[in-house]
Design goal:
The complex is a heterodimer. Chain A has 2 domains: 41 residues; 73 residues, Cytochrome c-like domain (Cytochrome Bc1 Complex, Chain D, domain 2), CATH 1.10.760.10. Helices cover 52% and strands 4% of the residues of chain A. Chain A contains 7 helices and 3 strands; from the N terminus they run H-H-H-E-E-H-H-H-H-E. In chain A, strand 1 and strand 2 form a beta hairpin. Chain A is elongated and about 95 Å long. Chain A starts with a helix and ends with a strand. Chain B is mainly β. In chain B, strand 1 and strand 2 form a beta hairpin. The longest helix of chain B is centred in the N-terminal third of the chain and has 18 residues. Chain B is globular, with a radius of gyration of 23 Å. Chain B starts with a helix and ends with a strand. Classes of the chains: A mainly alpha, B mainly beta. Chains A and B meet through helix 1, helix 6 and strand 3 of A and helix 1, strand 1, strand 17 and strand 24 of B.
Chain lengths: 160, 406
């Protein structure tokens, strides 16, 4: 009898330790995450100049912000099909690889086929039309001739 | 500023989330430091590059120099271009690094540790010019697909290592060997472990050359991680893609190596000249071997304004793949007349050569100084773009800088 009681007591005390431990871990975890997100949260000075930065709200508008016609996060031009391109074309390589190239419809499609054949790109389905249309509209080839003139020269006095 | 801060915070948070663990000492991470595993890191800090280098692509990393940054006689790391096809290997354990020799044409498969390689074979040091096959691609019309390199995907560093031919001799190569192909530790962009980002090679004759190295030092120090630490195959004078980074296996083949980017149209040009934009069949494309004759004016920076009556001193480098440069000329009248530059001999075979000249200008106005190198076979650089090719390789057109005399 007393053995059984004893066992019950032990279980009870173990259970309460477990509860206390769990609450403590949770508390430390929450404090830790809060601190990571906002190191100044525990600082007593509430009027630090940085407080404005800290108050940024993590909403989607900011993540996919477009300024002066440019999708800031990737550098892509804003246009019809932008997010389809962002979501399908920046998983393996950066947007810069797309932006620096200029191709017509046939060659963009050829490039997609090459990526599907050799680079593990998935079937784009209906999105392919949207993507190719975005690319030829925003990044069409530009004629350069056999040699371009030097442009954007930054003149400076040469001191020797 | 706001956005950067936000991105940094959320990515730290989400990294912890994805990995299911907290970043130990997260609070101790210096304010401007972003952990290597995160997006949007500072490549200049991460790779010790000069801020004036130009990033063409962040995934995979591709970065080139501007002409005037390449003024050093030996290219320091901070100005050395980066051309990656895949992701830089993670967690390299140099103590456990090995290199295996296999393939149809080895007498016996053999593996060396890095230490064995260093202690068993004689070390050699050479200055070797390495240029990306696509250097200059941005000028082709119609445009060619890929990283749009301008002029800065070239460098000549000092490489120290053991001769590949010494190691191949120790391994034992059969008479039917025609090619070697490297395999390396970098990851494919899709992170598919069964795919290699790149596995190229050279004919056995190039592999057996004295200057072809399995290098472990660049400019006297451990090779920087992004340039192939701890072991890199260096084939000077050939497309830089043959100088495999992070090499851990070399296959001696009885056929032309058929690894990633050896087949299809990669690093190949039409076997016969084609019209710009022409469709070329795969079987009509030939592998690029030695790089063509080329030069670069590295001083002064384009845009110099000088007073009338003052001489302009120019200097730069010239190189010609497997060949030597026999002459470098300059023109200030768009090629109507040419004058010779003073040309130095190479430090060793496959090292770029330095040239200089002192130029008088007849009157005030706008000038372009064009440089043109000639190789030991008498072949010179074209002033216009050379033959168009579908992938935009081998643009060795003359380099020029703008000068104003006022």
């Amino acid at each position: 009898m007393s053995k059984q009681n004893n066992f019950r007591k032990q279980v009870k005390s173990f259970y309460s330790i477990l509860v206390v431990a769990f609450v403590m871990v949770l508390l430390i975890g929450v404090l830790g995450v809060t601190y990571m997100m906002d190191p100044s949260a525990f600082s007593s000075k509430k009027d630090t100049p940085n407080s404005e930065v800290v108050n940024v709200t993590p909403d989607n508008d900011d993540w996919d912000k477009i300024e002066n016609g440019i999708h800031l996060r990737t550098g892509f031009k804003d246009g019809e099909g932008l997010m389809t391109v962002v979501n399908n074309c920046t998983n393996c390589h950066s947007a810069q690889l797309v932006i620096q190239n200029r191709m017509n419809e046939e060659r963009w499609i050829e490039t997609i086929r090459w990526m599907q054949k050799t680079q593990n790109l998935w079937d784009l389905g209906e999105n392919e039309k949207v993507i190719v249309n975005y690319l030829v509209t925003n990044y069409p080839p530009k004629s350069k001739g056999r040699r371009e003139a030097l442009t954007n020269i930054e003149w400076y006095p040469l001191e020797e | 500023m706001k956005r950067r801060n936000f991105v940094k915070k959320t990515s730290l948070g989400s990294l912890a989330g994805i990995l299911g663990l907290e970043i130990v000492f997260a609070a101790k991470i210096p304010e401007n430091y972003t952990p290597l595993g995160l997006q949007d890191p500072d490549p200049f800090q991460m790779f010790n590059k000069d801020k004036a280098m130009v990033v063409l692509n962040s995934k995979p990393w591709n970065m080139e120099a501007v002409a005037h940054l390449l003024d050093d006689r030996i290219t320091p790391n901070k100005y050395m271009f980066i051309r990656n096809n895949g992701l830089v290997p993670e967690n390299i354990n140099v103590n456990e690094w090995t290199i295996t020799f296999d393939g149809e044409s080895v007498k016996e498969k053999k593996t060396f540790t890095l230490e064995e390689l260093k202690s068993k074979f004689t070390h050699h040091t050479y200055q070797l010019t390495i240029e990306c096959g696509g250097n200059g691609r941005s000028e082709f019309d119609p445009p060619a697909k890929g990283n749009q390199w301008t002029v800065g995907a070239v460098g000549c560093a000092t490489w120290t290592g053991v001769r590949l031919k010494d190691v191949l001799k120790e391994v034992g190569v059969k008479d039917d060997a025609v090619y070697i192909g490297y395999h390396a530790a970098d990851l494919h962009l899709s992170r598919d472990p069964n795919k290699e980002p790149i596995s190229r090679g050279v004919p056995i004759s190039k592999a057996m050359m004295e200057e072809t190295l399995l290098a472990f030092k660049m400019n006297g120090e451990d090779i920087p991680l992004v340039h192939g630490y701890p072991l890199r195959l260096v084939c000077g004078g050939w497309p830089a893609s043959t100088s495999g980074k992070w090499v851990n296996r070399i296959s001696v083949r009885n056929i032309v190596h058929d690894g990633e980017k050896m087949t299809g149209t990669s690093y190949k040009v039409p076997c016969h000249p084609v019209a710009p934009g022409e469709d070329v069949k795969e079987e009509d494309m030939c592998i690029i071997e030695s790089m063509p004759v080329k030069s670069l004016i590295t001083y002064p920076k384009s845009g110099a304004v000088i007073p009338k009556g003052k001489k302009l001193n120019i200097r730069g480098h010239a190189w010609a793949g497997e060949l030597e440069i026999s002459k470098v000329s300059y023109s200030i009248d768009f090629g109507a007349t040419w004058s010779n530059c003073i040309l130095e001999k190479p430090a060793n075979r496959l090292a770029w050569q330095h040239f200089k000249a002192s130029i008088d200008f007849p009157k005030t106005g706008y000038y372009e100084v064009w440089a043109r190198a000639t190789d030991s076979n008498g072949v010179s650089q074209p002033m216009l773009l050379p033959g168009w090719n579908p992938k935009g390789y081998l643009n060795n057109a003359c380099h020029r800088i703008a000068v104003k005399v006022s």
